[in-house]
């Protein structure tokens, strides 16, 4: 008797109870972390990523200084307890370096680096928990962290993973589905609907690609609404706090 978990049952439900096109629950936390200029913790289902942004600031090494724009530096740290294999990944690990390079290339066309010549923007990504969709979580959390840091972007970057099981297209894959299905990760710019990242780590039939790509772009718009709502709420909270502080200051001046 086989112990393999069924990816998609006859009723159209996946192993975690979702439908084909249903996204996992998204939780966004934009609270300040330490001395970082911007930070965000984002959860896609059971995948959780925390991102801290520092800068723009002076580059530590002259070799990293670009005279006409800012250099984007990305470092990824995958914590040992984030996955079931309990293996510590070094910074020189191929998977870690590849993930950092992908995030960097995704944001270089989006961040307005020309406004900060001869400077550096540091992005530190901590992977707290993994259950599929790691790259999409890193990209979405980085977008939010850059936004809270006040670094100008041309637009949000929203990423989602799509795959195919038999003839059925599926979105936002968990780890079980990623291990068994061919899948792609698509990062879109919602306003212009341009694609800033498209990565395919497994073989996928060309006839299935168009459908996955279209659905992933539509899902990016949905994720954008959640991210925009979170940023809007945080901005409103900060504006309210500033207003309260000003009113107290004015009141104390009158009393004096």
TrEMBL record:
It is found in: Cytoplasm; Nucleus, Nucleolus. PANTHER family: EXOSOME COMPLEX COMPONENT, EXOSOME COMPLEX COMPONENT RRP41. Component of the RNA exosome complex. Specifically part of the catalytically inactive RNA exosome core complex (Exo-9) which may associate with the catalytic subunits RRP6 and DIS3 in cytoplasmic- and nuclear-specific RNA exosome complex forms. Exo-9 is formed by a hexameric base ring of RNase PH domain-containing subunits and a cap ring consisting of CSL4, RRP4 and RRP40. GO terms for biological process: nuclear mRNA surveillance; poly(A)-dependent snoRNA 3'-end processing; rRNA catabolic process; U4 snRNA 3'-end processing. SUPFAM superfamilies: Ribonuclease PH domain 2-like, Ribosomal protein S5 domain 2-like. It comes from the Eukaryota. InterPro entries: ExoRNase_PH_dom1, ExoRNase_PH_dom2, ExoRNase_PH_dom2_sf, PNPase/RNase_PH_dom_sf, Ribosomal_Su5_D2-typ_SF, RNase_PH. This is Ribosomal RNA-processing protein 41. One of its GO terms (molecular function) is RNA binding. Transmembrane segments: none annotated. Its main location: cytoplasm. Keywords: Cytoplasm, Exosome. It comes from Sparassis crispa. Residues 22-152, 155-218 form the Exoribonuclease phosphorolytic domain. Belongs to the RNase PH family. GO terms for cellular component: cytoplasmic exosome (RNase complex); nuclear exosome (RNase complex); nucleolus.
